[in-house]
C-alpha cells in the first residue's frame, strides 16, 4: 500500500469512527457515554494491575536488618535466635544471612557488620529489602560509645530509603545481664540529647558547604529532638540479653515478639 504523509492518520481516525459507530449500534446512543466510561475504567484497572504485578513483585520486602556498632552482639543474637546455641564470635567482615521462620511467615535476617569502615556499604546494599530494622546497642559500653551510636543511628534515621519506606525500627538495649548496663530509659534520654547535637553539627556542616541555611530533616524543626517526633517512622525501645548469666537464661521475649509482628 502506498501512503502519502497524512493518509495513515486519516485512515486510523476513519477506523476509530467505524468502531464507535458499531458500538453505538449495539449499546444505543443514549448509553454511549456510560459505555466509554466503562471501557476507560476497565483499561485503567488493567494497567494498574499490570503495574502492581511488575513493580510490587520486584521489591518484596522480607528482610530484617540487624545493625549496630561492632561488638553490640548482632552475630551472637542471630545464632541464639536461629539455633539456640551460644557461639564464640569474631568481628564480622561481611553480612550473615539466615531465614527465620516466624509464626506468620518467613523473614530474611541480615546481620550487617558493625565495623565503621564497612557498615554503611553493607547497609546501603541491603536497605531496599528491609521490612524492619533492629538497632542493637551494647548497654554496658553505651556511655563510652554514645557519640558513635548516635552518628550511626542518625545516618539510618535520615536515610532517603528509610524515610520513604519507613520500616519499623527496634532499638534493642542488649547485654542487660551485665551489672553495669544502662536501662532503656537512660539510653533513650541520652540518645535524644546526642541526636540533637548531631543534627546541629550536620546542619552547620551543610550550611558552610552550601553557604546558605541547610536543613537536616530529623524530628520537628526548632524543637529538641525526641523519637516521638519521627512521624510515620515508628521507633520502639526494649531491653534484652542474648547471653544468659549464671542465674538467668537469655532474655529475648520482647525482641521475638517484635520480630514475629513484622512477618
Ligand atoms: N554479656 C553479654 N555478652 C554478649 C551478649 N550478646 C553478645 N555478647 C558478646 O558480645 C561480643 C560481641 O558479639 P558479636 O555478636 O560478635 O558482635 P557483633 O555485633 O556481631 O559485632 P561485629 O560483627 O563486629 O559487627 C561477643 O563476645 C558476645 O559473646 C549479651 O547479651 N550479654
Ligand atoms: Mg558480627
Topology:
Elements: H1 7-27, H2 32-58, E1 63-67, H3 74-83, E2 96-101, E3 106-111, H4 116-126, E4 130-138, H5 142-157, H6 160-165, E5 169-174, H7 184-210, E6 235-239, H8 253-262
Parallel strand pairs: 1-3, 1-4, 4-5, 5-6
Antiparallel strand pairs: 2-3
Helix pairs in contact: 5-7
The site of magnesium ion (MG) has 6 residues, from helix 3.
Alpha carbon gyration radius: 27 Å
The best one-word shape is: elongated
Task: Give the CATH topology of the largest domain.
Answer: Rossmann fold
Ends distance: 61 Å
Features:
about 260 residues, alpha/beta, Rossmann fold, six-stranded mixed beta sheet, 8 helices, about 50% helix, about 15% strand, elongated, binds guanosine-5'-triphosphate, binds magnesium ion
Describe this structure in a few short sentences.
By secondary structure, the protein is an alpha/beta fold.
Structure notes:
With 263 residues, the chain is an alpha/beta fold. The protein is built from 8 helices and 6 strands. It has 2 domains: 7-57; 61-262, P-loop containing nucleotide triphosphate hydrolases (Rossmann fold, 3-Layer(aba) Sandwich), CATH 3.40.50.300. The chain has a 6-stranded mixed sheet with strand order 2-3-1-4-5-6, sandwiched between helices. α5 (142-157) crosses α7 (184-210). The chain is elongated, with a radius of gyration of 27 Å. The termini are far apart. The structure holds guanosine-5'-triphosphate and magnesium ion.
Amino acid at each position: 500500500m502506498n501512503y502519502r504523509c497524512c493518509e495513515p492518520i486519516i485512515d486510523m481516525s476513519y477506523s476509530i469512527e467505524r468502531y464507535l459507530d458499531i458500538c453505538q449500534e449495539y449499546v444505543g446512543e443514549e448509553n454511549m457515554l456510560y459505555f466509554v466510561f466503562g471501557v476507560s475504567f476497565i483499561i485503567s484497572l488493567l494497567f494498574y494491575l499490570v503495574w502492581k504485578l511488575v513493580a510490587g513483585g520486584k521489591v518484596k520486602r522480607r528482610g530484617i536488618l540487624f545493625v549496630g556498632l561492632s561488638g553490640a552482639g548482632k552475630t551472637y543474637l542471630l545464632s541464639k535466635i536461629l539455633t539456640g546455641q551460644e557461639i564464640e564470635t569474631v568481628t564480622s567482615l561481611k553480612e550473615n544471612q539466615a531465614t527465620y521462620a516466624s509464626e506468620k511467615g518467613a523473614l530474611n535476617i541480615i546481620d550487617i557488620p558493625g565495623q565503621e569502615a564497612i557498615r554503611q556499604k553493607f547497609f546501603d546494599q541491603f536497605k531496599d529489602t528491609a521490612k524492619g530494622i533492629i538497632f542493637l546497642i551494647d548497654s554496658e559500653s553505651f556511655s563510652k560509645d554514645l557519640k558513635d551510636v548516635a552518628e550511626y543511628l542518625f545516618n539510618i534515621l535520615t536515610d532517603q530509603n528509610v524515610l520513604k519506606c519507613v520500616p519499623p525500627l527496634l532499638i534493642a538495649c542488649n547485654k542487660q545481664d551485665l551489672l553495669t548496663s544502662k536501662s532503656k530509659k537512660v539510653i533513650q534520654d541520652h540518645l535524644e540529647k546526642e541526636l540533637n547535637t548531631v543534627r546541629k553539627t550536620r546542619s552547620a556542616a551543610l550550611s558552610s558547604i552550601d553557604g546558605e541555611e541547610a536543613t537536616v530533616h530529623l524530628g520537628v524543626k526548632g524543637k529538641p529532638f525526641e523519637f516521638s517526633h519521627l512521624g510515620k517512622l515508628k521507633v520502639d525501645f526494649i531491653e534484652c540479653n542474648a547471653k544468659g548469666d549464671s542465674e538467668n537464661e537469655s532474655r529475648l521475649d520482647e525482641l521475638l515478639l517484635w520480630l514475629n509482628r513484622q512477618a
